[in-house]
Design goal:
The protein contains 14 helices and nine strands. It has 347 residues and is α/β, with parallel strands linked by helices. The protein has a domain of 241 residues: TIM Barrel, CATH 3.20.20.210. Helix 12 packs parallel to helix 13. The longest helix has 25 residues.
C-alpha cells in the first residue's frame, strides 16, 4: 500500500496527517554537523553519495517522519553547467563564473544527469536501498527563475538588480536562459525519478520577488513546462515562497500539490484550490523556538484551519533554521500525528 505521505499528496484517505520538514537534514542536528565536519565542506558532503545518503537518513532515525528528502542543493545544475559553485560558511552560495552579460549564454550547455550530476542519482540509489521501501523519498530542483537569479547575480541578492535588468532590458535573453534551465530541470528530475524518488518538489524560492505579470511570464510558464515533462504518474509539489496571491495559477500548472509559506492562511488556500490539488505547509519555522505548549497551539490551529479529510502534508512554511533544538522538532512531529487523527476517518 502506498505510504501515508503519497496518499495525502493524491488526497486519498489516511489515518493522520503526514509530516516532513524542508531542510530536515541540516545543521540543527548534531549528527549532521559531525558528518559535515568529517566531509570537510558542504560540497564534498553533497558530491559524495555515501555521505549524502548518511545525512538524508539521519532525521528519519531520530523522528518518525513520513518522508525523506534527498540531501543536495538547488545549485547543482548551475554548477554542472560550469558556473563553479562555492559555498562559504556564513556567506551563502555563490557562483565563481556568473553570467554578467546576455551574450555569455553561448557558454551554457545542457548537463547530462547521469554524467555531470551522477553523484546525485547515485545518492538516490543508495538512499533507496537503505530505506528498503519503508519511507518514500522526495527529489527536488530549483525553479528556472530561481536558478537564473543565482546564475546572473552570482549569489543571493534580495534586490535582483542584474536579473531584473535582464527581465526588463533583455527579456529575450532571459527567456533563452529560462528555456535552457527548464529543460535541464526536467531531465534532472526525471533522472532522479528513474533512480528511485517517488515524488519531486520544485523550489521557486525567489518567485515572490516578481510582479504578477512577470511571475506568470518568467517563472510560472517554465514550471508548467517542467511539470508537463515529468515521468507519468510522479507526484509533484510546486512551492513559490511569497506566492500566496497566485495559488490558482500554481494549481493550474498541473502539479499534484501546492506548497504554502507561513504568510498564507491554509483554510483560505483550501477553499481556493483544495478541490484541484493537495496542500503542503505551513508552520512558521520561528515558532519552533517557542515553548512546546505554544508550538502545539500553532500546530493545532493549522490542522483545524485545513479541516477534515486528506490532502494536507504538514510542513514548515520554509526551511528549518540551524538554531532549532531537535527536541522541538520531535514534539512537533508527535503533535501533528496525534492531533490530526481527529480530522481523518479512522479504520
Amino acid at each position: 500500500m502506498p505510504s501515508r505521505f503519497l496518499r495525502a499528496l493524491r488526497r486519498e484517505p489516511i489515518d493522520c496527517t503526514p509530516v516532513w520538514l524542508m531542510r530536515q537534514a541540516g545543521r540543527y542536528l548534531p549528527e549532521y554537523r559531525a558528518t559535515r565536519a568529517r566531509a570537510g565542506d558542504f560540497l564534498t558532503l553533497c558530491k559524495t553519495p555515501e555521505l549524502a545518503c548518511e545525512v538524508t537518513l539521519q532525521p528519519l532515525k531520530r523522528f518518525p517522519l513520513d518522508a525523506a528528502i534527498l540531501f543536495s542543493d538547488i545549485l547543482t545544475i548551475p554548477d554542472a553547467m560550469g558556473l563553479g559553485l562555492v559555498l562559504d560558511e556564513g556567506v551563502g552560495p555563490r557562483l565563481k563564473h556568473p553570467l554578467t552579460t546576455p551574450d555569455q549564454l553561448t557558454r551554457i550547455g545542457q548537463p547530462d544527469p547521469e554524467r555531470e550530476l551522477r553523484y546525485v542519482t547515485d545518492a538516490v540509489r543508495l538512499i533507496k536501498r537503505e530505506l528498503q521501501g519503508h519511507t518514500p523519498l522526495i527529489g527536488f530542483a530549483g525553479s528556472p527563475w530561481t536558478l537564473a537569479t543565482y546564475m546572473i547575480e552570482g549569489g543571493s541578492d534580495r534586490d535582483f538588480k542584474r536579473t531584473k535588468a535582464w527581465l526588463y532590458g533583455a527579456p529575450e535573453a532571459l527567456h533563452r536562459l529560462l528555456a535552457i534551465l527548464a529543460e535541464a530541470v526536467t531531465q534532472y528530475l526525471n533522472a532522479q525519478i528513474a533512480a528511485g524518488v517517488e515524488a519531486v518538489m520544485i523550489f521557486d524560492t525567489w518567485g515572490g520577488a516578481l510582479t504578477t505579470p512577470a511571475y506568470q511570464e518568467f517563472s510560472l510558464t517554465y514550471m508548467r513546462k517542467i511539470v508537463a515533462g515529468l515521468s507519468s504518474g510522479t507526484p509533484s509539489i510546486v512551492f513559490t515562497k511569497g506566492g500566496g496571491m497566485w495559488l490558482e495559477y500554481i494549481a493550474a500548472t498541473g502539479c499534484t500539490t501546492v506548497g504554502l509559506d507561513w504568510s498564507t492562511d491554509i483554510g483560505a488556500a483550501r477553499r481556493r484550490i483544495g478541490a484541484q490539488v493537495s496542500l503542503q505547509g505551513n508552520l512558521d519555522p520561528a515558532i519552533l523556538r517557542a515553548p512546546i505548549p505554544r508550538l502545539e497551539q500553532e500546530i493545532d490551529t493549522i490542522l483545524a484551519g485545513y479541516g477534515s479529510g486528506s490532502g494536507h502534508v504538514f510542513n514548515l512554511g520554509h526551511g528549518i533554521t540551524p538554531d532549532i533544538d531537535p527536541e522541538q522538532v520531535g514534539a512537533m512531529v508527535e503533535r501533528v500525528h496525534l492531533a490530526s487523527r481527529a480530522f481523518h476517518v479512522q479504520p
